[in-house]
Amino acid sequence: MAQNTPDEALVPDMRRKRRNELFAFLVLAFGIWPVVAVGVVGGYGFLVWMFQIIFGPPGPHGG
C-alpha cells in the first residue's frame, strides 16, 4: 500500500485555504469596500453641507 506523501496530504488544505482567500477577497471587494467608499464620500458631503450651513456658501461676499 502506498503512503501519502506530504505534498498529497497538503492538497486539500491548500484548496480550502485558496477557497477561503477567494471568499475573503470577494467579500472585501464587493461587500465591505463599496460600503466604506459610499460612507466616506457621504460623510465628506455631509461635512461640507454643515460647513456651508454654518459659514455660508463659498465665493466672494455680496456687498
TrEMBL record:
Keywords: Membrane, Transmembrane, Transmembrane helix
InterPro entries: NapE_TorE (IPR010649), Nitrate_reductase_NapE (IPR004448)
Highest taxon in the source lineage: Bacteria
Chain ranges passing through the membrane: 22-55
Name this polypeptide is given: Nitrate reductase NapE
Organism from which the protein derives: Aminobacter ciceronei
